[in-house]
Write a structure and sequence with these properties.
With about 230 residues, the protein is of the alpha/beta class. The chain has six helices and twelve strands. About 25% of the residues lie in helices and about 30% in strands. The longest helix is centred in the first third of the chain and has 10 residues. The structure holds S-adenosylmethionine (SAM).
């Protein structure tokens, strides 16, 4: 991984903001991911994220923390927060911005336990593909203290396959429709392609049930997105 995402965060943090990140997927054209969005304040966060932050309790693990926006908000409210990310640049930025406990660590490398685990901005993306959902959920379950909770957001992206007549063009025999190949470029460099999973609520709930986890729909967003709360 070249860590172009981390480089972009570092540029923004260091006052060198000249370009945004460009993203695309195997089913969608190029799109712009504005760097300021990755530094959004509470008031500019989607309602789902604001709700997740309001539901936090006890010790918190912020998984895939990016620039540390959610961690910083919670830290300022007095929560004990640990922020982890696989991006070196992201963790450097989170530390520079004041996140006290930030570490370069993949989710599967975390082994401490917490009262709240946050996965925000399509938190299921980190699971990468449907076949890995159970493995990730089982690991997340092992990181929960008694009465702990996992707060995770995602979207049902079936709408992306809808044609003008209201029909769907996805191939039901191929892999799950929320499994995307995700391409990111920044300053004329291309990151290695990533797998990124969007999971509809019912599929997430089913996967949770097979692991004896309870999955509740907390809130639905404006565009097929949702916030779920998972408990043991
Ligand atoms: C879409 S960004 C979200 C960043 C931040 N949560 C936000 O809302 O602005 C996803 C983040 O997850 C990180 N990530 C991807 N896979 C990960 C993994 N297995 N463990 C920890 N972090 C991961 C990426 O490096 C990236 O910073």
């Amino acid at each position: 991984m070249k860590d172009l995402f981390g480089n972009a965060l570092l540029d923004y943090q260091n006052g060198n903001y000249t370009q945004d990140i460009t993203t695309s997927t195997n089913i969608s054209d190029e799109d712009v991911l504005p760097l300021p969005y990755l530094f959004r304040a509470f008031k500019d966060m989607p309602t789902l994220e604001q709700k997740a932050l309001k539901l936090c309790k006890g010790s918190v693990l912020d998984v895939g923390c990016g620039s540390g926006i959610h961690s910083l908000y919670l830290q300022k409210k007095g929560f004990k927060v640990k922020a982890i990310d696989v991006s070196n640049g992201a963790i450097e930025v989170a530390k520079k911005r004041g996140v006290l406990h930030a570490e370069v660590l993949p989710l599967l490398g975390e082994h401490h336990t917490f009262d709240t685990i946050l996965l925000l901005m399509n938190g299921t993306g980190i699971f990468q593909e449907l076949t890995q959902v159970s493995k990730y959920l089982a690991h997340l379950k092992s990181l929960l203290n008694t009465n702990g909770q996992i707060l995770i957001d995602s979207s049902d992206i079936k709408y992306m396959y809808e044609d003008e007549d209201g029909g769907y063009w996805m191939d039901m025999n191929s892999s799950y429709y929320g499994e995307l190949d995700y391409f990111l470029s920044y300053k004329n460099e291309e990151e290695a392609p990533m797998k990124w999973l969007y999971l509809d609520f019912e599929t997430l709930k089913l996967a949770c049930e097979t692991l004896d986890l309870k999955c509740e729909l907390v809130l639905e967003g404006e565009h097929f997105d949702y916030l779920a709360k998972i408990t043991a």
